Amino acid sequence: RAAAHAELADALRGLGRAAMARRAYARALAVDPSYAAAAAGLDAMDRGRQERENFQVGQRLASQRHIGHWTVLDVRRGGFGVVYVVRASDTGARKVLKTYDTRLLWSDEDRARFEREALTWVRLRPHPNVAPAEHVEWIEGLPCVVTEYAEGGDLARLLRAGALPPADALRFARHLCDGLRHGHDQLGLVHRDVKPANCLLTGDGTLRVTDFGLARAFDSADADLPGLGELPAAAQALYTTVAGTPRYMAPEQYAPGAVLDTRADVYAYGVVLFQMVTGALPPAGVPARAYVERTTRRRTRRTPLYRLIRACTEADREDRPPDFAAVRELLDGVYRKVLGRPAPAPPGTPRLTAEEYVSRAVGLIHLERFGEALEEAEDGLRAADRDGDGDVVRAKLWQVRGMALGWLRRGEEALAAYDRAVGLNPEEPSAWLNRGNQLLAQERHEDALECYDRALEIRPDIGNVWGSKANALGALKRFEEAEEAASRAVALRPRDPNILVIRALLRGRQYRHADALEDLDRALAVEPRSALALGNKGNTLLLLSRPEEALDALQRAAELAPDDPSTSCNLTLAAYRLGRYEEAGEYCEKALRLFGRTAELLVHKGLIHGKLHGSDEAELACYDSAVAAAADDDAWRAAAWGRKGAALLALERPEEALACYDESLSILPDTSWLRDGRQTALEHLGRTDA
Fold this sequence. Notes:
Blueprint: H1 2-14, H2 18-31, H3 36-46, E1 60-62, E2 69-78, E3 81-88, E4 94-100, H4 108-123, E5 133-139, E6 142-148, H5 155-159, H6 166-187, E7 199-201, E8 207-209, H7 214-217, H8 233-238, H9 262-278, H10 288-295, H11 298-301, H12 304-312, H13 324-339, H14 354-366, H15 370-387, H16 391-407, H17 411-424, H18 429-441, H19 445-458, H20 463-475, H21 479-492, H22 497-509, H23 513-526, H24 531-543, H25 547-560, H26 565-577, H27 581-595, H28 599-613, H29 617-629, H30 634-650, H31 654-667, H32 672-684
Antiparallel strand pairs: 1-2, 2-3, 3-4, 4-6, 5-6, 7-8
Helix pairs in contact: 1-2, 2-3, 6-9, 6-13, 9-12, 10-12, 12-13, 14-15, 14-16, 15-16, 16-17, 16-18, 17-18, 18-19, 18-20, 19-20, 20-21, 20-22, 21-22, 22-23, 22-24, 23-24, 24-25, 24-26, 25-26, 26-27, 27-28, 28-29, 28-30, 29-30, 30-31, 30-32, 31-32
């Protein structure tokens, strides 16, 4: 069993499924604490890992959506997630950021699930009893859902004082029922974590359900993920956990990997309703229906309200109301009996405003749903026409339309959209920034610089603009100006990993590798799981002739981005320099699959083959393929001819070797190692001519 767990871990690690691989290694060691292969695998994965802390009260967070920053006012933890109450520096508005707890070693699978489930919340149309997800943005490498701040707190705070008056309890019960029904009817959502803490209260006493989708995001149901479905069901269940809050969870939620439907939410709804009318909550592990029966009098159990609670909390989901439409029908009858008047009809769904379309489109762009974002922007423009909105909001919609088109690689259409945006509102710096970024992607560096300068004329304190300007100046080899712009960007956004990587790459191009490494380490201190920063750190360490450290950084980058071809290429080089030729061969083969048959990789394949098997025809074939692949790359064409010459010398074929060295020197005549190789070939032939 220990061997099976360890070999499963090796396979999962090879697929880039790092968190699951760690779990499998841990299982192997739980079975056999002395199992060396599992201990070595776990040690290799954890070596050099950096952990990060959650955000702290008072910390300033760089916002991608806003020109300014967020200031953290309060931190609230619960389960696997963290909630931050923040204030926007540009508007002063309070908002809530929801993300995961970084201390719980969240994996890339977990992060992907968070993004996918955040998407369901973003897609959910507005409803009076649902707290909207305004948008999604990444802050210091963490995906955050941005929501409204509830001035009235939440239902959990209200219930600390005990049971509610019947009228209040039934009003909140109606709001909760209608909000959950909206989520299920529109997108088929099962909330999975219905509880008072997820019921926010507005200033006028309206209850709004929050965290749609995030309960499943904080789950580890890996069976939802591509690739895992190929594992046997028992193996899937072995590395799966459950999510929810135990005192509100339906019995079926305790089964790992269980398929849930809206009746799980109906159960939790019944528990919340019982808590509102009694102030009591079933203890953990005690079925709610049994607790209700045990703690209420026989006469009370016959009332319509308690019949509803008991129906919702039946242990067998087949015995519960099938959905919230059925719950609403029962609740309406309770309302008439208890309050003596009919319940208000369910509210209609309001139309989206143009500003709401902007937020939805931005959230979808951050979630890489570019086609959907384009549709939202176009719907927003129609809404702006319908409502007679002014130029400012229309400019925003044209700008997000341009962003979506740019990501869809429809560059000219994107530029046309940005032209409309800056035409409608030429004083919006973000429109000039995005127009410049599109021009930069098209390698129109001078035109991009003009856009960045326009943005900085309006607002000289935007770090992202300075960072993009540094990129453009670097492409033009105006390194002194680029360094100044990059340093301005870092001064304005000192904890932005992307800007630190921009400056590191710029310094690397100037052969300032030690300075580049310093910036990359700063970026990794903020975002330890940045594949971009780790990959560039590995490359920089190779350039500093520190292959062992480079290999470690590159292996961690490959864990995070297993299909990145440049990481595989650099892993090949690092392992080769360390004399780990079999490992280098595996990395090289993977890089060839990802990158294609490039001259550089084919030369390395030949060198590795020579080290492992000695020079032979297979090694020579690698160099011949490299020569063909390097038709437009003089450096690697010369290298391929030179390496072929060295292999022919090893095979004691000096005449052919001399011809190869002559070919290489005709391309790069002043390369010392090629001249030395030619001289060796001449000596083998007994010739002394130059």
